[in-house]
TrEMBL record:
Pathway: Porphyrin-containing compound metabolism; chlorophyll biosynthesis. This is NADPH-protochlorophyllide oxidoreductase. Phototransformation of protochlorophyllide (Pchlide) to chlorophyllide (Chlide). The lineage of its organism: Eukaryota, Viridiplantae, Streptophyta, Embryophyta, Tracheophyta. GO terms for cellular component: chloroplast. It comes from Capsicum annuum. One of its GO terms (molecular function) is protochlorophyllide reductase activity.
Amino acid sequence: MALQAAALLPSTFSIPKEGKASATLKDSTLSGISLSNHVKSDFGSSFKITSQRKLSLGAIRAETMVASPGATNAPVIRKKMLRKGCVVITGASSGLGLATAKALAETGKWHVIMACRDLLKTERATKSAGMPKENYTIMHLDLVSLDSVRQFVNNFRRSENPLDVLVCNAAVYQPTAKEPSFTAEGFELSVGTNYLGHFLLSRLLLEDLKQSDYPSKRLIIVGSITGNSNTLAGNVPPKANLRDLRGLARGLNGLNSSAMIDGGDFDGAKAYKDSKVCNMLTMQEFYRRYHEETGITFASLYPGCMATTGLFREHIPLFRFLFPPFQKYITKGFVSEAESGKRLA
Ligand code: NDP
Ligand code: PMR
């Protein structure tokens, strides 16, 4: 992947040339901003969870003992049946997240925790999608607030469900915004939501994933082709570029620092693409740090161009009108939400 994200990266962060990107980040300073302190303090408490979670998902792992009658020392054959997997999907109230939740819930093999900011909207969406009630739970998560992320993690832990898969899907895109808006903690909104919120969520829930006894544990982040400069789509201006991360290091707050990661002038479309580069790099770094020790699969996924989703709600009407046929007939990159949902599922 040619993620030409940073022209001038500090020594803590390096991307080798020739397409194979890998990021090296010093412990506890992943972003170089106070988020790391939030994470450190949360790690303290998350380590307390040592007891095995109760598996409250209906079809639990069943162990069948088969012994031949009369043979006292006969070997005991344990036949293991796979319990239902438990997957958390952020932003599952519409688009890709909803389609993925539906696809997984309909298999009957998964219980889907839909982590959403608008509970009513999500409930309505599940009903109109006809999702089987017993296979999903809706829980509140607003990625715009790191406190909400911590609250979600606490609530999830209280629910005593195991965590087998985490899918970081939610995102906002503000291509027409003239001025930046900010998260509860004062970070630029798209990077704050798409990247920092998911980063904290992933760091906290990593402990829960580690405890899962499910055969394939996964942490997946939805990436985008538009953050990838070895593609045509990734070369459409404004291009993603993190440079030396100076805006991020100074807090992305638009007051004593730029609202952009690279320290430049605010551009909503670039902020979104930068956030996606961060998401993809995060998965590479998680893989490097934690895969061998935990067996967890870390990946980012580009689902295809779903030109009709709510992601483009803030774009100008002409764009929303032309974008679907442009992607269908010209780039041929168009994919329906249902198809992308199956891919991600
Ligand atoms: P949608 O707008 O349909 O879905 C985005 C979801 O994110 C919604 O459920 C939205 O909730 C949720 N969300 C937004 N902000 C927050 C927040 N603060 N807290 C919690 N949830 C939030 O868009 P898509 O389905 O298209 O996007 C899904 C993913 O796919 C994104 O990561 C996007 O970057 C990625 N992607 C999309 C492409 C496309 O062509 N559409 C192409 C490549 C990647 P609410 O309903 O409340 O607004
Ligand atoms: Mg892009 C093969 C060519 C291709 C693909 C697969 C996409 C996907 N786009 C392609 C090409 C082009 N686009 C070209 C040639 C242009 C100039 C006319 C172009 C323009 C364009 C715009 C203005 N494209 C866009 C926008 C957006 O606002 C979308 C965006 O960048 O959102 C962040 C977008 C997209 N094009 C795509 C995909 C998948 C998107 C949405 C990306 C995302 O949601 O992450």
